[in-house]
Design brief:
DNA polymerase, domain 1, 5 strands, 358 residues, two-stranded antiparallel sheet, 16 helices, hpI Integrase, Chain A, mainly alpha, single chain
């Protein structure tokens, strides 16, 4: 029988209320699961008893449970974020030490293992062009799917952001997109993301522009309507079957509908199926290539993809291009306007170069 701690339940509830507007329900569920697992291990002791001994025992327990490194990292990350918040709350400030909270992390060997296990197998630009070109325009669903594929490739937006993308979020003249709760777009952690429709392929870019004009001028959609409307189901005249060739100004209920489009269109093009997120990887790769080793541009690309911490983008993709990063490092050190780059950026570049043996 579970023994709940009423004080713990109060602070957990407060934490979830604070974070709910930022996270999807699925993320909230993962956070609660991580906290619950820790409470089970500690027999529901008051969080005020949080200490280095309990942390070390719990981390060792997770390692001994034969869970994957990815799963362990997920549990520890959620738990660490919770206790980082908790140590700033009244009644806990003197009880929970931040340096102890930081121990809720995987070690360097596990981190390297996790990075190596990440699937880097994403489509080439040629494969992306193939699936795009294979969509022949016969109806509105074809038009939407073709524009969806083009937008995913040229922006690298996450599926949930694509699902909730509104016309009002797009400046079609400047080829810019403002992903924000203000424009109705759901982003990871609810952060505002200013992004570009890159010109990796002119035909795809024109397709997006044409689709925007079609929705505005022909379908008479307004700024709060979806850029990728869901499919309208209608019956044949004899009521014996359904036809799926029209759209209606409503949002898809789940981003799984986007995955389904990519799967069906890849099958139609007779090429391997990649998830929408793998096309995001392609967009990141193409954008970094366009930077030509300019560290300032890489910082801009990092923000475009919603990563304020440049390290996340660079540590994931830069090892593939050590020569370009070396050139960026030289530019940083020799740049006459030294203030353009922070000391943290310079140290990051030096650390990454040393790590890669450049």
């Amino acid at each position: 029988m579970k023994k709940y701690c009423s004080e713990n339940e109060k602070v957990i509830k407060n934490y979830i209320e604070v974070k709910r507007f930022k996270f999807a329900e699925s993320t909230i569920s993962q956070i609660l699961k991580a906290i619950e697992k820790y409470q089970e291990f500690t027999s529901y002791k008051d969080f005020k008893q949080f200490n280095i001994k309990s942390v070390n025992h719990y981390v060792r327990h997770l390692r001994d449970s034969k869970l994957s490194v990815s799963t362990i990292n997920g549990y520890l990350t959620s738990l660490r974020n919770f206790f980082e918040w908790l140590c700033s709350q009244t009644g806990y400030k003197s009880r929970i030490k931040l340096d102890v909270v930081e121990l809720l992390s995987i070690n360097n060997n596990e981190l390297n293992q996790l990075n190596k296990s990440i699937n880097k197998d994403y489509p080439t630009l040629e494969q992306a062009k193939t699936i795009f070109s294979a969509v022949k325009i016969n109806n509105d669903v074809d038009r939407r799917d073709k524009a969806l594929i083009a937008t995913a490739i040229l922006t690298g937006m996450r599926s949930e952001s694509l699902r909730t993308l509104t016309l009002g979020a797009i400046d079609i003249q400047k080829k810019e997109i403002f992903q924000s709760v203000k424009t109705g777009v759901k982003t990871k952690f609810g952060k505002d993301i200013f992004s570009k429709i890159f010109n990796f392929d002119e035909e795809m870019r024109d397709c997006i522009t044409d689709w925007y004009s079609y929705l505005k001028e022909i379908k008479l959609y307004n700024n709060t309507d979806p850029f990728f409307p869901k499919t309208k189901r209608r019956q044949t005249e004899d009521d014996l079957a359904f036809i799926f060739d029209e759209i209606e100004p409503d949002f898809w209920q789940s981003h799984s509908s986007i995955s389904k489009v990519f799967k069906e269109r890849a099958k139609q093009a007779n090429i391997r199926t990649f998830s929408p997120h793998r096309y995001r990887d392609l967009a990141v790769s193409l954008a970094i290539e366009k930077c030509n080793g300019d560290f300032y541009l890489i910082k801009a690309v990092s923000q475009h993809f919603g990563h304020e911490d440049t390290r996340l983008l660079i540590e994931t993709y830069a090892p593939l291009r050590p020569k370009e990063l070396s050139q960026a490092f030289e530019k940083i050190d020799n740049n006459s306007n030294d203030n353009d780059f922070s000391e943290e950026d310079k140290q990051l570049a030096r650390k990454l170069l040393a790590k890669m043996g450049v």
